Task: inverse folding
């Protein structure tokens, strides 16, 4: 039985089968000895590359340390594929819509189409981006804070203005007065 090398010269590398190895059966993991430093390695079931066990997620079973059958990069790609198959970022957003507003994702998308992907107040598309991803934010669901009734979809700016007006009716007139005072003082 020959076991793969990890890119070291053949004269400095020797193999020692150390765990779950029986005659004619490939072990789950083994040691590769480089000089005086043994390195515990394992073969990934997905990409079939032989890597140090540090490249595999540990699993504790019956108080013994074992490792997953696929390496960390393969595990990451499997999780990403499962996430995308399940609906990606729409799944958690659909849960928020249902919990907070009683809407399904389909109802939200229907409202979005009826509003031509534009804000219900200013009639402009959303321009605010998410800093982490750089993607444009979704339009916010505007709802009456007393009854909980959904009114429409708003851009970030209009949503903040509607919230401020609804929260404190004097805010809008105070803002208007503030801007007017600035313009009057600037014009002098």
Result:
């Amino acid at each position: 039985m020959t076991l793969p090398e990890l890119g070291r010269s053949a004269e400095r590398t020797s193999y020692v089968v150390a765990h779950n190895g029986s005659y004619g059966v490939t072990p789950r993991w083994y040691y590769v000895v480089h000089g005086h430093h043994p390195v515990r390695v394992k073969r990934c079931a997905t990409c079939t590359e032989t890597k140090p066990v540090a490249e595999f997620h540990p699993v504790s079973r019956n108080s013994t340390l074992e490792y997953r059958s696929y390496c960390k990069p393969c595990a990451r790609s499997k999780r990403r594929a499962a996430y995308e198959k399940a609906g990606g970022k729409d799944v958690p957003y659909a849960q928020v819509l249902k919990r907070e507003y009683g809407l399904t994702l389909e109802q939200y998308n229907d409202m979005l189409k009826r509003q031509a992907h534009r804000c219900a107040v200013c009639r402009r598309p959303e321009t605010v981006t998410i800093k982490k991803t750089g993607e444009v934010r979704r339009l916010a669901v505007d709802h009456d804070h007393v009854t909980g009734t959904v009114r429409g979809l708003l851009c970030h700016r209009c949503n903040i203005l509607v919230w401020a007006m609804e929260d404190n009716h004097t805010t809008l007139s105070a803002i208007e007065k503030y801007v007017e005072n600035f313009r009057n003082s600037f014009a002098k």
